[in-house]
Amino acid sequence: MKKATDRVGERHGGWTVIGVGAADASGSRTLLCLCDCGQRQHVPRGNLVSGQSTRCEACRARGRKQQHDERAAAQVGTRRGTLTITSWRRTPRGVRLGWRCDCGRTGWTPQVGGTGPGCPSCGARARGRRQTLVRHRGVAYTLEELGAMIGVTRERARQIYHQHGRAEVLRRAGLGRGGRG
User: What is the reported pTM?
Assistant: First the structure.
């Protein structure tokens, strides 16, 4: 194992070892290091050698902020359900994504998960509308499809499904017992 004094001049990530520090409270040796940004700090030798500490906290925070910015920029132009991500901006609370809905409305949402409140005019969310699937004889039908078979809107088909159950929706669509199929 190298002596602490032999490590002066070595580079570990963004740290350059410039001297030897005293032992810390647990008895392990610290090394005086200079970060690429110019900050000096005593770093535990084990953390430095193992790669657990590669730069100061300020540089780590800048790196996280840069990663968030890059992730947001990569999402511009992508579609999420009925929403298209059109732009991004940094705010004091983090990154926000600009979106445009198929209905023409625009808005901003936090990057986390990318869903946010969604479109207030049509109710669409960034991840798309959750579809309720009704399975019958190995075929999955959406409530929109069943509504078209019954001759009602998707919303009315959803009401029938929640009030009367799966069997009633299938019966009215002609797929269940006592129906046309």
Answer: 0.39
- For 62, other C-beta atoms within 10 Å of its C-beta total 13
Q: Would you state the structure tokens that stand for residue 165, as one six-digit string?
A: 């159950």
CA distance 78 to 30: 48
pLDDT by residue (tens digit) across 152-162? Answer: 888 888 888 88
How many other C-beta atoms lie within 10 A of the C-beta of residue 119?
22
- The CA distance from 124 to 80, in Å, is 10
Contact predicate 114/126, CB 8 Å: yes
Q: Write the pLDDT tens digit of every residue in 77-105.
A: 887 777 788 888 888 877 888 888 877 88
Do 170 and 176 meet the contact criterion of CB atoms below 8 Å apart?
A: yes
